[in-house]
Amino acid sequence: MNIPILSSLILLPTIGAIFIFFSKSNVEKYNSSKYIALFISTANFILSLYLWFVFDNSISEFQFVENRKWIVGLVNYKVGIDGISILFIILTTFITPLCVISVNTTVKKRLKDFLISILLLETLMIGVFCSLDLVVFYLFFEGGLIPMFLIIGIWGGERRVYSAFKFFLFTLLGSVLMLVAIITIYWLTGTTDVEALYEIGIETKYQNLLWLAFLSSFAVKTPMWPVHTWLPDAHVEAPTAGSVLLAAILLKMAGYGFIRFSIGLFPVASDYFVPLIYTLSLIAIIYTSLVALMQEDMKKLIAYSSVAHMGFVTLGIFTLTQQGIEGGIFQMISHGLVSAALFLCVGVVYERMHTRLIKDYGGVVSVMPKYAIVFMVFALGSLSLPGTSGFIGEFLILMGAFKKSFFVAAVASVGVILGAAYILWLYKRVIFGKIINQDVKKLIDLNNSEIFILWSLAIPILFFGFYPEPLINTIEVSINNLIEVYNLNLENYMVKNK
C-alpha cells in the first residue's frame, strides 16, 4: 500500500488536538471541541478496523512497514505491525471515543484542554504499538507520561497533585535504566532497528543486564509487585476517563514490551529469569487479591484487581509456551475491556452520589436495574466466568503454566478463587441488600449515552468469550514465529556453551 496508514493512525488524533486547540467554542451548551474529538477518535477507530481487515494473519513478518530517515546515521522513524501489535492498536482506538463520550458528565472544567490531552495520549499509545525502532519506542513510551500526568494532576481528586507526581516519578525513574540499555544496544550493535536486532542478536554475556534494565521500566508500568503502589493512588484520584485509559491501555504497553523486547531481544536472559517472574507474578496474584478484599473504596478495589490480573499476564507470557503467550495477550485485551467498564460503572454512581465508598451504597438494584445488569456482566467478566473473554485468557495462561510447573499453576489457580471472592463481594454490597442510605433512593438509572458506552464494552466481552477465534487467528502466526526464534537462539546458546 502506498498510503502511510500507520502514520495516519498515529497523527490523526494529534491533528484533531490541533483543531480543538484553535477552536473558539467554549460554551458548555455547545462546545465544538467535543464533536471534533468524537469525530476524530471514531474515524481513527474505523481506520484501525480497516487495517485489521486488510491485515494478512497468515504471515509472520511485519506489515505496513514505514521506514524514513530521522536522525541521519543514528535513528530512523520506523513503524510496522504484526498480529500481536494490531490488537492493541484496535483496543486503543476503540476505548478512546468511549472516553470522549463519557466526558459529557464527568469533566466539569477546562473540557477543551482535557480532550486535547486525551487525543495526544492516543497518538502516543498507538505509536508505542507500531514502533520498530528502540529510540522511537522509548519516545512514545515515555511521552505518554505527560498527558496522563496532566489528566491526573489537573482533573483529579483532592490528592491529585501527590498522585500525579507519584505516578510520574515511579514510571520515569523506572525507565532511565531502559534508556541506558538502548544506548548500550546501539553501542554494541550499531543499530536500534528492532528487525535488524532480531537478525543480528545480542551477545549473551550482555543479555542479563540489558534484560534487567528493560524490566526496571516494564515492571513499574505493568505494574508488578512490589513497584505497584503508584497505581491505586493514580486510579483513585484520576477522573473516570483517565482511569479508563490508564487501566485499559497504559498498563498493556509494558506487557507488550515484555513480548516484543524482553523475549524477542534477550531470549537467553528471559529463560534465565523465568523463576524471578514467576515469583513476582504469584505474589502479585495472591497478595493484591487479598488486599482487594480489604478495600472500602470501589476504585481502589478495582485498581488492586488490575495488579492481580496483570500478574496473570506476566505469568502467561513467561511460560514461553504458545498457550501461555496467547493467553497473556488475550487476557490483556479482555482486561482492557473489563477494567474500562468497571471504572466507568464506578464513575456512573460517583457522579450521582459523589462517593466511592462501598458502605454508602446497597440496594442499588431496586432503583437502577439497567445499571445492575451491565455491572453484573463486567463483574462476571472480571472473575473469568466461562462465556466471557476473561475465561479464555486465564484458561490459556493456566494451561501454559501447567505445562511448565504444576506448583506455579496451582498457586495461580488460588488467585482465580480470590478474584471471584472480591468482585462478587463488591457486587453484593453495592447492588443487593436493603437501602440504608436514603440518597440511594434518589439515584437515576442509566441515560442513553451511558447505556451506549457500557453495552459497547459488554458486547465484545461476551462475543469473544463465546467466539475467541478472530483474536486467536490474528496472533497465532506471530506468536509461533516468536517462539521459534526464541527456541533457536536458546539452542544456539546451549551448543556454544557445551
Summarize the model shown.
With 498 residues, the protein is mainly alpha-helical. The chain has helices at 5-22, 32-54, 83-106, 111-130, 134-143, 145-155, 160-189, 194-200, 204-221, 230-237, 240-265, 267-272, 274-293, 298-317, 322-353, 369-382, 389-404, 406-431, 448-466, 469-496, and strands at 63-71, 75-81. Helices cover 76% and strands 3% of the residues.
Description:
With about 500 residues, this protein is mostly helical. Helices cover about 75% and strands about 5% of the residues. The protein has 20 helices and 2 strands. Strand 1 (about 65-70) and strand 2 (about 75-80) form a beta hairpin. The termini are far apart.
Question: Keywords, please?
Answer:
single chain, 498 residues, mainly alpha, two-stranded antiparallel sheet, 20 helices
What is the topological layout?
Layout: H1 5-22, H2 32-54, E1 63-71, E2 75-81, H3 83-106, H4 111-130, H5 134-143, H6 145-155, H7 160-189, H8 194-200, H9 204-221, H10 230-237, H11 240-265, H12 267-272, H13 274-293, H14 298-317, H15 322-353, H16 369-382, H17 389-404, H18 406-431, H19 448-466, H20 469-496
Antiparallel strand pairs: 1-2
Helix pairs in contact: 1-2, 1-4, 2-3, 2-4, 3-4, 3-11, 3-15, 3-20, 4-5, 4-6, 4-11, 5-7, 6-7, 7-9, 7-10, 9-11, 10-14, 11-14, 11-15, 13-14, 13-18, 14-15, 14-17, 14-18, 15-16, 15-17, 15-19, 15-20, 16-18, 16-19, 17-18, 17-19
